[in-house]
Each structure stands twice: as C-alpha cells, then as structure tokens.
Design goal:
globular, alpha/beta, 11 strands, eight-stranded parallel barrel, TIM Barrel, single chain, 3 domains, 16 helices
Length: 429
C-alpha cells in the first residue's frame, strides 16, 4: 500500500467512522436474527435412532433439533415399534420440533405376527397412510422396512441351508422353494459334478432375489399397494433392491469399505432407474466405540452430499448406558459442523453424470473384497478379477463422480448422457 493511501485512510472523517460502526452493528444484528432460524439445506440430514424408550428418543431430538431436519425412528425390533401410540408419540415430538420423519414399524413375520400385529395385520395400509399424512403432513416421508436385503443375500449361509433342509426343496412348503431348488440343482451341476467352473449367467439368482426376497415380500407388497415411499439401508445389490420395488436406498458407509465405491453403486442404480438415494453412516467396529471418529463421519457426509445424496443419516445404535446411544460429543460436533457448512457454504456439485462403469448383466458380486460372493451362492467367477481391476481404476480416477451400473435392457446406459462410459472388460481407463 502506498504512503498516500496510508495518509488518506488515517484522515477518514470521524462521521464516516461512526457510519461504519453503525453499519457493522446493523449487520451483526441482522446475522444474529437470522442465526436464530434454522437454515434449510437441499438434503434431509439427521439421526437413525435405535434406542428403546420414548424418553431416549425425545432427549436425542432435543439434542440435535437445531442442526438436523430428519429423524428416523429406526426401531424395527423393539417395544416402540410394537406400540402404535409410542410410534406416534415420538414422531409427534419430532415433527413439533421441525423434523421430518421416517418410521420403521417392525418386520412382518407371518409366523409371529402378534409381535407387530398392530401395523401389518390391517387389511391395507391406506388407513395408516391417511392417518399419518393428516397428522404430520409433508413431514412424513415414508416407511423404513426390513434391513439390508442385499447384504443378507450376499452373506447368508446358503450351503448350510441346503444341507439343513436336504433333498428336493420343491417339496418344502415355503415361498420361493421352487426357485431355490432350481439354484441348488444349478450348483450341483456346476460345482459338485464339475460340468463347468462357473455359470454362464445368473438369471435364476437375480430373479429369486428380486421377486421372492423383495417384490413379493408381504411388507413391500403392502407398502407398494398403499403408495407409501419405502426406505431401507444396504451394503450391496442396490441395483436389484430398486428393481425389486424399494423407492429409496441408503448406502451403508462403514465397515472399512470404500465410501466412493458404495456411493458409485447406489448412485448409478438410482440415476438409471430414476429413484432417490442416500447414505447411512454406520459402524466401523463391531464393538465400542462402534462408529468412526467425528472427522471421518463429517468427511463421509460431505462426500455423500456433494455426490447428490438426498438423505444423510448417522446410525445410532446400541444404547448401552450413554445418554445418547453410541453418539459422543465428537459425533454431535461433526454433525453440527456439517449442517452449518452445507447451509452457509458452496461446495462443488459432483452429482452430474460424468462417468459410468457398466458391469455384466445380473452380475451380483459383492465387490467388497477379492473373495466376495456372487449372489451369496457362488464364489468368484472368471470375470471377477477383471471387474475388480477396472472398478478400482475408475474409482481412483473419478471418485464419487463415478456411477456403477449394469447391463440391463430395461435401463439402457444410453438413457443418461454420460461424458464417458467404460465397460467391465476395458483394458485401460
């Protein structure tokens, strides 16, 4: 700065200084007033509550209401979900504090329906939809039903199941027995008899998962019939979760898995199938402290937000003596920082369809490690190594800009204007 400028600045008239001071005070007053009103981000951000009492739920709502706008009553197997009055008490409280709600009301188990009968034993869910829409308006986002259908499919002990039931499954009286028998015979032909090292296709497996596990699940059928938006979390097979009938998938970010890969899988499936997606920040460890550090949770939330997640929640379970479940002050600080940042700052939008990786049709490989299963029934096949290599290359190059999709005539890749499209058998990126 020149000496003349210094003199000029020093000789500013007193009345200008006064005006400046008054202006600063006015701005401060304006900012203070605005800060009392919670900003509105372009995403639903909050907590998936896994506590056991209505008091615990209300205490958590009081804690986070100023920096969240979403409360997931994620209590599918506890006394709250078995009691309609308790469900409505918690959601009434959340909505009264400005939060949107997603409700998990339990698992429909026809062999033990008395545990969850108040909800699933109704002739239809039309009445519940009307009741809750009238009660909570647009703050009622939908029902969280079941949990990790794709992950269960990938990790279930199907071989032990076959050994347990034994013989011909067609004679067993339960849904999808015939489909499972066809898969069992296929396994016998390929593995036990050594006809071929790996199958030519996975049509049977994909059909079983989509139709028997999801589409014709009584809970999914009832939600679909009533037109209630259905949510669940998963860590694999998102493409078929959507095709089976779920409206919103929340990718589980945790377990030391690749965050970018999980986002690419759920985002690609949602984009081509015109669905919504989100992220559920879940456990890193299977014992206390369960969740990752606040810094890492913040980073995962921000990655999800920039990639276009419409729903972002932190999984809060179990409640083991702490006032707020598994959440610590470190986690609350991270959540508050995230909320403040996305409501006051501009971030790069990484949600546009920049690049897609197309995997083989019905290729239900878990993609978590080189020895992951194929549909839970099969080990790796002659394509998994190449798929792993090209996936790693694309993730390294594009990060969350990548969509991972599948060859599927119902949802052709040409429906989206991607800048770059790669296929699983590509030799270079």
């Amino acid at each position: 700065m020149s000496s003349s400028n210094r003199v000029r600045n020093f000789l500013v008239p007193t009345f200008l200084i006064v005006i400046l001071a008054v202006s600063i005070f006015a701005v401060y007053q304006s900012f203070s007033t605005v800060s009392q009103t919670k900003a509105t981000p372009n995403a639903y951000v909050g907590i998936a509550f896994g506590g056991n009492t209505t008091d615990e739920a209300k205490q958590l709502i009081d804690k986070v209401q100023k920096y969240t706008n979403l409360f997931i009553l994620d209590v599918g197997r506890n006394p709250i979900s078995a009691d309609q009055s308790k469900v409505e008490e918690v959601c009434d409280y959340a909505v009264a504090h400005g939060l949107y709600v997603i409700v998990n009301v339990g698992i429909k188990d026809q062999s033990n329906s008395s545990d969850w009968g108040w909800f699933w034993n109704q002739p239809s869910l039309d009445g519940i939809k009307q009741r809750w829409t009238e009660r909570w308006g647009d703050k009622f986002l939908g029902i969280y039903y079941n949990d990790e259908p794709g992950g269960v499919q990938l990790d279930a002990s199907w071989r032990r199941f076959y050994e347990y039931v034994g013989g011909n499954l067609s004679s067993v009286d339960f849904p999808a027995a015939h489909e499972l028998e066809d898969i069992r015979l296929k396994l016998l032909n390929y593995v036990d008899n050594g006809t071929k090292p790996t199958p030519d296709d996975y049509e049977l497996e994909a059909e079983f998962f989509m139709e028997s596990v999801i589409t014709h699940d009584p809970g999914v059928e009832n939600l679909t019939a009533a037109g209630i938006r259905s949510f669940t979390s998963d860590y694999g097979l998102y493409w078929w979760d959507y095709k089976g009938g779920y409206d919103v998938m929340l990718a589980e970010l945790g377990w030391n898995a690749s965050v970018a890969e999980q986002i690419a899988l759920v985002k690609g499936a949602a984009r081509l199938q015109d669905k919504e997606w989100g992220a559920m920040i879940t456990w890193k460890y299977r014992s206390p402290p369960y969740l990752d550090s606040g810094v890492e949770i913040y980073n995962q939330m921000l990655m999800s937000y920039q990639a276009g997640a419409k729903y972002i929640a932190v999984f809060n379970y179990p409640y083991e003596g702490g006032a707020y479940g598994t959440l610590t002050d470190d986690h609350f600080a991270a959540l508050q920082r995230f909320w403040n940042d996305i409501t006051t700052k501009q971030y790069a939008d990484l949600s546009s369809p920049q690049a897609a990786l197309v995997l083989p049709k019905n290729f239900g490989w878990g993609l978590r490690n080189p020895n992951d299963t194929m549909w839970g029934f099969w080990l790796t096949d002659n394509r998994t190594n190449q798929v792993a290599v090209v996936t790693a290359m694309c993730i390294y190059y594009y990060g969350v800009n990548l969509d991972i999709v599948y060859e599927d005539s119902t949802y052709p890749i040409t429906n989206v204007d991607y800048q770059k499209v790669y296929y699983w058998n590509a030799t270079a990126i």
